[in-house]
Structure formats: structure tokens, C-alpha cells
Amino acid sequence: MSTKEDAPRDRGYFVGIIFFILGLGTLLPWNFFMTASMYFNNRLNASEWRNGTVVGRKEYHFNNWMTFLSQLPLLVFTLLNSILYQRVSEKMRVGGSLVFILLLFILTAALVKVPMDTDCFFSVTMATIWFINSFGAVLQGSLFGLVGILPQRYNAVFMSGQGLAGTFAALAMLFAIASEADGETAALGYFITPCVGTLITLLCYVILPRLEFARFYFDKSKKQQTEAFSKLLSPEEEAEKQKNGAVNGHASRDGGGRGQEDGGATQAFLSLESADTSPKKSSVIEVLKKIWVMAFCVTFTFTVTLSVFPAVTVDVKTAYAGKWERYFISVCCFLFFNVMDWLGRTITSVVRWPPKESKLFIVLVVMRVIFIPLLMMCNVHPRTYLPVLFSNDIAFTIIMLLFSFTSGYCVCLSMSYAPQLVDPKDGETAGALMTFFLALGLSLGAALSFLLRAVV
Fold it and tell me: Name one GO cellular component term (predicted).
């Protein structure tokens, strides 16, 4: 079998760059739709006219529905991933998902120039969000499995690409606003960007298996799977071989053949016994008992985060009129959130406090609930019930910086601590469980956002 020393060099770190782009591509759909909430709200919340008279304005609650229909597919397809993983090939799951995401982005870009009734536009947009995030969930799960074949550092590169997807989308929106183009042209340019990004991601995936470094590890993984399968069959095959030898007269009549058959059977039995005494994976319930604290932490963290971001935070208004109004949400809400969230995740490679054994960590996670009333009492409009306590832009910005940094920090610590609480043989099960609870937290937060936005 090939050893680590046999592995070729990753020339120019090209495979690392490709996995960074693949990580970026997995979260482009969610981030581009989320960052474009101003465009969708402006188009959906226009005043309704009848016989030349304004008759009112229909409220679609786009931010809430967008968040909910983006995160629910992640939960659903996380549950279905085990079935899809076995029955659908990797090329179909990754390549097919990227193709459909590209087509849906092209549709979204084309609709910018197509006049439509607001109800129809809302329905089409919601369907697009559902399907594009369903394919995104399949893509993300498949690529996590693919990057797991490579050395550990490539997993960090892949996740770094995911962490910067939101920043990329926020910068794209800022450039679209700064272009000084009319609303339709700016939106068209904005949605063409993820089309190009998804196409580049697809090309990177096509190139990946042609690179010597990646091909070495992919082939090695296939070889190990084949060898493992062969070892499972070898005891039965050996016993069958010995049995057939005796029947066909290859064994001698003086008992030597019988002894050989007995020896073969004994060897098969010992092989089976050896296989039975190998470490067995714990059940899902047993693993969950060990990691339930971290599962709660990642669920609670994302529930708090998604309950107010972006459904509540996107409706905060600046205290300063003028040109700054156009940039306020893109900078103070989306750009700052994504940069600080990425920084919170990254800093865990240097600082890991509190330790996994400390009850202080769960206290820190639960304390983040204070950000919900703080953000709801910022200058959110329209509002009905709660007073505005933080009307200043600086106050909102400071709250957002702390909110996003602690979100990334707590999530990353939870996800990294969980596998350390179980035996190495149960690491894969722990990772799958944590992925499920991560998706559960996102979905719960998205559902809770309807209530919290109504309370404001």
C-alpha cells in the first residue's frame, strides 16, 4: 500500500486553491440571496395601485421566508444525505448540483428585467430559493466527504472558503451600489456575479481529479475501500475454497485432506473471530450521550443567530440621511457580520477558551440570547410594539460586531470539541450528528424569526 511519503507534491498548492474555491461556491447561493434582500424588498413592497389610486401595500415578510426556505432544505437533505450518498454517484451529486444552481442563478438574473405581478414574483423567488438551497445542501455534504479524503489541512482551507462566501457576496453588493447604475442594472450585475462564480466552481471540480496530487488520494481511498470489502469476504471464500477442494478429490483419502480442510475452516474461523474482536462503533444514542452538550451549543448558537439575522437586522435604519443610507445595511449588517463571523471561527485555531470540560462554555453560549432584545431595540422600522433604545449607528455596529464574532467563535468551538469527546472510531458518527444539530439550529432560528419580527 502507498504511504504518505509516496504522495506527490501539490504543485503551487493548486489543489488547496481549488478546494478554497469549492468551499466558496457551496455557500454562494445562501449569501447572495440574503445580501440581495434590499432588492427583493424594494420590488415586492411597492405600493399597490388600482384605478390610478394607491390602495395599500402588501407585506410579504420576504426576509423571514427567505431565511426559512433557505435553511429548511439543509435540515431535510442532511437527513436524506445517507440515502443519496449510497445511491447517487459523487459526480452526479456535485456536478449535477452545480449545474442546477447555475441555471437557477441565470433564471434569477433574467427575472430582474422581466416585469411580473408581485405575487407571482414572490412565488417564483421562493421556489428558486428552496431548490437552489436544496442543491446547495447536497453539494456541501458531498464536498465535505470529498475533502475528508485529503490531508487535514485541506479541510481547513475548504471551510475558510465557506467562511469568506458571505464577505464575497457583501462586497459584490457594495460594488453594485457604488456603480451608480440604476436599480435594475445594478441587480443584474449583482446576480451575474454568482453565475460566473458557480461556473468557475464547476470548472474547478472538473479539473480536480486530473491533478496528480488529488488523484493519488482519491485512488488510495478507492483501493482501501476495495481491500476492506475483500477482507470481509475472504473468510467465507477461503472456507468455500477448502470445501470445494475436498469435494473435487483434491484432498487425499488418508485424512491429510481432512486435516487441510479442518485447517482451512479453522483459519476462516480465526479470521472471523479476529474481525469480530475489532473495535465496533458505538450506537448513535451512545455517541449522543457523550456530545449532547456540544450538540445543544451549536443548535442554540445558530437558533439565536438566525432568529434576528437577517430578518430583524436588515430592517435597521441609519440615523444619518444622505448617500450613507444606500451603503448602511450592506456594510454594517452584512459585511461586518461575515467578516467578524469568519474572524471568530479563525481565532479558535489560536485560542480555545473555555475548555470543553468547563461548564462555562455552555453559560457563554446561553448568554448570547441577550443579543436578541438588543438588536430588536435598535432602530428597526417599521415597528409596532417595542421602543427604540439604540438609535445611533455606532451602537448598532458594536452590537453586530460582538453578535457575529461570538456566533462564529461558539459554533467553531462546538464543532471542534464534539469529536474530541468520543473515541476515534466514533468520530464520523459525532460529525454527522453535529451536522444535523447545526442544520436544526438554523431551521429553528429561521422559524423563530417570524415571531420576533412581528413582536418588534
Answer: basolateral plasma membrane
- In this chain, the answer to whether the domains covering 10-48+58-210 and 286-456 adopt an identical fold is yes
User: 31, 66, 45, 46: which is closest to 136 by C-alpha?
Assistant: 31
- Look at residue 196 in the predicted model and tell me its pLDDT: 93
Hunting for cell 445562501 — which residue is that? 30
pLDDT tens sequence across 425-446: 777 678 778 878 888 999 899 9
What are the domain boundaries of the chain? 10-48+58-210, 227-246+258-276, 286-456
Q: In this predicted structure, what is the pLDDT of residue 246?
A: 46
Instruction: Determine the pLDDT at residue 268.
Output: 42
Q: What CA–CA distance (Å, rounded) separates 337 from 333?
A: 6
Sites in the chain below the pLDDT cut of 70: 1-5, 46-57, 81-86, 224-279, 428
Q: Which fold has domain 286-456?
A: Growth Hormone; Chain: A; (1.20.1250)
Predicted TM-score of the model (pTM): 0.76
State how far the Cα of 153 lies from the Cα of 228, in Å rounded to an integer: 26
What is the topology classification, in CATH, of domain 10-48+58-210? Growth Hormone; Chain: A; (1.20.1250)
Q: Which residues pair with 48 in a beta bridge?
A: 56
Query: In three state form, how does the secondary structure of the chain look?
Result: CCCHHHCCCCHHHHHHHHHHHHHHHHCHHHHHHHHCHHHHHHHHCCCEEECCEEEECCCCCHHHHHHHHHHHHHHHHHHHHHHHHHHCCHHHHHHHHHHHHHHHHHHHHHHCCCCCCHHHHHHHHHHHHHHHHHHHHHHHHHHHHHHCCCCHHHHHHHHHHHHCHHHHHHHHHHHHHHCCCCHHHHHHHHHHHHHHHHHHHHHHHHHHHHCHHHHHHHHHHHHHHHHHHHHHHHHHHHHHHHHHHHHCCCCCCCCHHHHHHHHHHHHHHHHHHHHHCCCCCCCHHHHHHHHHHHHHHHHHHHHHHHHHCCCCHHHECCCCCCCHHHHHHHHHHHHHHHHHHHHHHHHHHCCCCCCCCCCHHHHHHHHHHHHHHHHHCECECCCCCCCCCECCHHHHHHHHHHHHHHHHHHHHHHHHHHHHHCCHHHHHHHHHHHHHHHHHHHHHHHHHHHHHHHHC
pLDDT on residue 79: 73
Q: Looking at residue 166, what is its pLDDT?
A: 87
The confidence score (pLDDT) of residue 397 equals 97
Handedness of CA 312, 314, 315, 318 (dihedral sign): positive
